Amino acid sequence: xxxxxxxxxxxxxxxIMEMVKKIxxxxxxxxxxxxxxxWEAVKKREYDLLFTDVRMIRMNGSELAEKVAEMSERKQxx
Length: 78
Fold this sequence. Notes:
By secondary structure, the protein is of the alpha/beta class. The protein is 53% helix and 18% strand. The chain is built from three helices and three strands. The protein has a three-stranded parallel sheet with strand order 2-1-3, with helices on both faces. It is globular and about 30 Å long. The chain starts with a strand and ends with a helix. The mean pLDDT is 87.
């Protein structure tokens, strides 16, 4: 399982990662401090689960989620 965590607060990323590791100990987890870097990762790699902060610099979590949903729809319609 591949999981992406995007949050501009380091302690929040660490807390989410700790919680996720307890539930999914074998998961591969990537963390990002902003939505733009997270989006670049999503374009290169598929993730099973995404945790994102709503308020972040550059690209907020809502924008990131919309882009991921649009990309997912395009993949399904091909």
